[in-house]
Amino acid sequence: MMTTDSNTRTRLARHLFVAAWLLLIVSLAWDPVSSRLTTGEVGWSPWAPRDEVVNVRGEVVPLSGQYALGASLLWGIAVPLIPLGMMLFGERLWHRVCPLSAIMNLARRLTVRRRVGTGRPGNARRIDPGGWLSRNAWEVQFGLLFLFLNLRLLVINSDRGGLLLFFLFVIGVAGLLAMRFGRQAWCDHLCPMAPAQRIFSQPAPLLKERGGDGGHGYWADVLNPSRHFVYYGYFGLVIAYYLYYFLWSGDWYYYHSGLWDHAPNPLGELWAAGFYIAGREIPIPKLLAVPLTLAAGVVLGNLLWGGIRRLITRWSGDAELGAHRTLMLLVFCAFNGYYLFAGKPVLRGLPGPAEAVVTALMLALSGWWLARSLAMRPAREDAPALVLPR
Ligand code: SF4
Prior knowledge:
two-stranded antiparallel ribbon; disordered C terminus; binds iron/sulfur cluster; 5% strand; 17 helices
């Protein structure tokens, strides 16, 4: 049970997250302040101009310019904290403080209150747990994550108007679903962030998760082909997503420079050649090149990890243990692959060894995760659900 103190802390965190998110959304429409951090007026700013250049599709581009920071804060700081937060604290805590979840909660409460006022019952209709959407929730949410990453690479990484519309659309759809089906409908069936949350927090986060299910859900599902498809595909998606920055620009430093989060005309680039490799443009429009690259990542990820699973299962001599060990090794690799890139444009702008320290910390944390997860054993009917190492 949650104590009053932890309830208060959770509520405070939720209010802070909601306020920060709403501020970010407003800043996408109107932001007269943050660009000062990009001009060099503020010495400590990680976004201050750097005496470096990047080769972007054959053009030498300096790392300087004045731009609003909404997208940079989102993609450079907020989003990179998600896998780390999941691995440390777990998805249940995040569900209590997630700003979108809080907004859905509010929408739901307003509906209930209105219905109670009219004398009609306030219970939400539930999405049929045996229906198509529930049975295919892994694939549906992964498909939406795939679409979201396409949208990022094509438009909303740098187009602030597009990002604003995207947020308003998501809030609208999630709010309407919450009013009709309850707030879990979006989280359990449609939120594109849910697969990554499960991948990095199951079977158990590193720090104790209050109200966790003791691993029952994970172990009962560890052989589920949908889970394996999504884990393997997610690994491929992460690699392909970051690889595309190189395939688009022709320079490995392009992603780390952060130039992509304030590119001047992303919509105008949709029909430009989508690949620039070895100094030559490949005439496939970016609009096709991005989904092709990400889809190739999903296919190759499944081929690679399908093969690794067969080897590990043969060596383990047990299907459940083999599946579990494969998934945990994948999480370790995906986590470190992700943090080779995520957050680096901001870290590179910080003085001293900040980047090296964070990289070492991520490696240590994920190593701890791997060692602890590999020591877990499947829950048998006559054993506790989650057997944690002492
Ligand atoms: S599933 Fe989506 S909406 Fe629900 S808590 Fe997670 S990020 Fe928030």
